[in-house]
TrEMBL record:
NCBIfam families: aminoacetone oxidase family FAD-binding enzyme. The keyword Protein transport does not apply. This is Aminoacetone oxidase family FAD-binding enzyme. It comes from Notoacmeibacter marinus. Its cofactor is FAD. SUPFAM superfamilies: FAD/NAD(P)-binding domain (SSF51905), HI0933 insert domain-like (SSF160996). Residues 202-356 form the RsdA/BaiN/AoA(So)-like insert domain. Keywords: FAD, Flavoprotein. Residues 15-409 form the RsdA/BaiN/AoA(So)-like Rossmann fold-like domain. Pfam families: HI0933_like, HI0933_like_1st. PANTHER family: OS12G0638800 PROTEIN.
Amino acid sequence: MSEKARRKFNLTHHHTIILGAGAAGLHCAAYVAGQGRSTLVIDHAKAPGEKIRISGGGRCNFTNTRTAPKHFLSANPHFAKSALARYTPADFIALVERHGIAWHEKTLGQLFCDDSAKQIVAMLLDEMARAGADLWLNTAIIEVEKTDQGFAVTVERDGRRQTLSCANLVVATGGKSIPKMGASGFGYDLARQFGLPVVEPRPALVPFTLTGALHEEAKALAGVSVAGRVVAGRGAREAAFDEAILFTHRGLSGPAILQASSYWREGETVRLSLAPGVSLAGALKDKARAGDGRKTVETALATLLPERLAGAVCARAGVAGRLAEQGRKSLDRLDAAANEWDIVPAGTEGWRTAEVTLGGVDTDALSSRTMEAKAVPGLYFVGEVVDVTGWLGGYNFQWAWASAHAAGTAI
Ligand code: FDA
């Protein structure tokens, strides 16, 4: 039924109301409405799928063909398995292809649109509209209450307050990252209101900030990028990432750093390797033997590392002069300065730039098959609001699609 007809008959009851018109909410709506259920998606933003639009540098890294449970962090690492197994990257690729959207693999299984992330938003809106779901934007959610029939949702729209009712309520309001894009802690507050535990949310996939001498070194190198390795975390939480490290005016960024940030906790050391798997001492000795001995050690190192970085590593290791003059100890010191560089980040750039939220609605409180709250029948949580956080590289969208499918087909 059209929204106009609904208004005319003052029909405010829906089979399902979905809070949040992001990746998970839009995808879920198509499945629920596709079964002939009256479905309404509500969002306070003025446009749907804003994070999709800006994702992947405007081309949306919409999935990763290597998706496996090991690419997700959660207090319960088994929770995501069921939904991920029942909605795979191949399922989403099939949807993308049905809509004629051209795509390519960039690296490491990461799939991007050839043209624009806006195509993914348009595709989700099309699927949802064709299934018959309604979408209300610019709508503030004032209050949610449990009723005998399900839920009462009071909203404010066009300056008018109204209370809607529904049998099922899906919370797809995402995490707290990038508040200026409409992110809020709403989903966590709602979970707590219904007595569900929340694993403390923290910014993830986020650049590190540095202070003191480390900050000065990073600032001087701002813009330099190197294929490195970053190891962060302790014990079972330890993880290593072989990707680019980028020096910035505030500290460190780049894919390897963003990945590591999800495993790091305040005060912990992070190990950087700027030439992983390469013995710089050995390579420099070879160069000296091959006739480069008269070159400065800095010039010789600049053939193995970006030039500015080579200078900074030599300075930090306190090594200078001609290559031929270097003893074994100074070359080992140089190697360690590059490959065993232990730093303690001052912090992260926080919610302002974090790509995702670690933590969220505790999975112990949810069914891994349907995403329904065990203690509150009819209440579902999907997407980033749940304590399931993917690595960088399309995994977070794959979780949004898979969890939305799990709830959308179960309702
Ligand atoms: P999402 O955040 O998409 O949607 C939540 C919706 O709820 C929003 O529309 C918001 O307005 C609405 N909402 C919030 N609070 C509300 C309230 N109180 N009332 C009403 N509505 C409310 N992932 C990936 O796999 N590949 C990628 O390329 C990228 N790139 C990327 C770039 C950048 C800059 C960011 C910030 C993030 C990414 N991500 C990503 C992560 C990805 O965008 C994210 O994991 C998904 O969008 C999560 O989907 P959800 O639907 O759960 O939340």
